[in-house]
# Entry
Amino acid sequence: MTPQQTSDLLEIQQLIYRYAWLIDTRDFDGLARVFAPGAEVHYNVFGGVKQAFPAIKDFLRMGLSLHRVTQHQMSNPLIELSGDSASARTYGTLVHVQELLDGKPSYVVQHAIYHDALARRPEGWRITSRRLDNLFVQGRFLGPDRVKSFEKPQPY
# Structure
């Protein structure tokens, strides 16, 4: 492995981890440091969407507001480099905590795989296509009529 390949791998890993932190802190504008303009983002899950970046930010903002906190744990990124492009598969354990109207918590955990296509751009590596597929889900997401809404995460 060349020094450039090592650097590329580390940069792509950081990009994958940065996505999780931005989602969990609800820094939707920061996602411009992760996705290329026009990147296709497909949350291939129940209630998910397929939209281009940056339009996907509205879906994320609305969906995540139904959660008091989330924690996206990304692991085992398998990255394949090919010059100025790459692909990655990453496991995700995606913890979501909703707060019922009576104050009780409701938990949902998605066990999923992210499938990414990436490109080296002048500003660094960016995701050009992302698909999220569930392996299995524990719990059930509840709608806005059953849970409190949070613009920003509210840790306990």
Summary: Residues 19 and 34 are 6 Å apart (CA to CA). The longest strand covers residues 105-121. The two ends are 44 Å apart (CA to CA).
